[in-house]
Amino acid sequence: MAPVSEQPAPQGEGGPAGAPPAGLRQENGGERGPAGGEGGGGAVPLPREEATGAGEGPAEPPEGGWGWVVMLAAMWCNGAVFGIQNSCGVLFVSMLQHFGGSEDRQMAFKTAWVSSLSMGMVFFCSPIVSIFTDLFGCRKVAVIGAAVGFVGLLSSSFVSTIEPLYFTYGVLFACGCSFAYQPSLVILGHYFKKRLGLVNGIVTAGSSLFTVTLPFLLRVLIDSVDLFNTLRVLCVLMFILFLAGFTYKPLISNTKDKEVAKKGKFRFPPEKKIFNLSVFKVMSYRIWAFGIPAALFGYFVPYVHLMKHVKDRFGDHVREEVLLLCLGITSGIGRLIFGRVADYIPGAKKVYLQVASFFFIGLMSMMIPLCHVFGGLIAVCLFMGLFDGCFICIMAPIAFELVGAQDVSQAIGFLLGLMSIPMTVGPPIAGLLRDHLGTYDVAFYLAGVPPLIGGAILCIIPWVHERQKLKERAKTVDGETTEKMLENESTLVSDAAEKTVKEMESGF
Q1: Distance between CA 307 and CA 374 in Å, rounded?
Q2: What is the DSSP string of 277-304?
């Protein structure tokens, strides 16, 4: 599974796609971030008149310089976080072998909870991370998040049973990843505007690159030094991520910000600005925010269970890691292709790309049990990765179309939080079915149903959004008409009064 919120958002009118929207606002200590939080991004939001100073607007992003270092740090963050998460199938097989016993008939169910909790918590924490990034800035949140993730992963290497992994790997490590990941998206909008699409594409490639290479490395490490030492080696990635967080240097846009930074003042913004629930007043966003999670109940199942399914069906005669390689490569290609295609699709009609993606993802999931030749599974994974990339890359642009630039990052934060529920629940249910039925066939058939249902729900969004826009335009026209009528009435009354006064004066 590739990261969802790393994807490009439209950058102004007709601008290129790029990761978080470039509508910047002030942060504590002078750091600037997008309004809200696709990961948040800013500490103390100041009123516009305070933020811009006397006739001085926010400074333009530097479009390079130190920003290239920030880009490489963000690329490492995307790769390290989702490279480990997407390689969960390799770790799942190793955990089954290490902790499993012939007497425990629910081991697949128990083990699946480790990976599911981990991926689910990354998304579940998203709204919270948005708030913390708004309050304390990108650098502090990213550094502390990486440190927590390092502690969680290291402590996971010292457990003797599966249960402690639910907390150390499923909660502690995943929360750290979430807090490190979202600021890496927000900070890009501070340093780039014109090149944001290019930069976001490079950063996105980080997760695909790690997803392609890490499964092979993990297999070699597990065979050589066992599971626990492999987890300790992965701690090196988190330590580098900890260092990378220090590169998120705050930008100070004007003299007013510099004064605030020097004084070190900190004020909590109003509660309504921290919890911006106004996005749920938009009907098209509500449908989208609940339709996407509905489609994702089976989405993460192949990433967790496909490796074990291949072992069950083909034994040790094939390299199951090749399937993750196929998923990673075509997912990266899909993001580049469909991200560009989305630029030419107007407004909320971009949703139709997600509808097509869910249709093909559901279909490919159902085809997995039908593949009795390994080459067939490779073909299925190639198509699944391609449409996975399509689904992911247009997440932020669609949010931008539905709620506007001002609320887009909070909208994505809430969406990711809702997505955590199905992504956590789906794989354990698939594991439970495997434990009771002895095969993954039914689990993969059922995993293909939710994407089809979710895609059907999303079909109505463009129609609902268009009706919503027409109503808003009608209200605007009515408001302007009423205002003109009042002005005309006021003018007539004024003229009549003036005429009466003149008549009285002429009478005297």
Answers
A1: 12
A2: GGGGGSHHHHHHHHHHHHHTTTTTHHHH
Give the Cα separation of 142 and 242 in Å (integer). 8
Q: Cα dihedral sign for 36, 38, 41, 43? A: positive
Q: What mean pLDDT is reported for the chain?
A: 75
Q: From the CB of residue 137, how many other CB atoms can be counted at a distance below 10 Å?
A: 27
208-247 pLDDT, tens digit per residue, is 788 778 888 888 888 888 888 988 999 999 999 999 889 8
Which DSSP string corresponds to 123-185?
A: HHTHHHHHHHHHHH-HHHHHHHHHHHHHHHHHHHTT-SSSHHHHHIIIIIIHHHHHHHHHHHH
User: Are 228 and 5 within 8 A, CB to CB?
Assistant: no
d(CA 438, CA 176): 35
Instruction: Supply 142's token pair.
Output: 């990213």
Question: What are φ and ψ of residue 470, in 5° steps?
Answer: -65, -40
User: At 75, phi and psi to the nearest 5?
Assistant: -65, -45
SS3 for 195? coil
Contact assessment for residue 385 and residue 1, using Cβ atoms and an 8 Å cutoff? no
* Least confident segment among 203-207, 442-446, 495-499: 495-499
What is the pTM assigned to this prediction? 0.67
- The DSSP bridge partners found for residue 9 are 18
Which amino acid is located at 43 in the chain?
A: A
Residues 15, 21, 26, 27, Cα dihedral to 10°: -140
Alpha helices, H only, 157-281: 163-167, 174-186, 188-191, 196-244, 255-263, 271-274
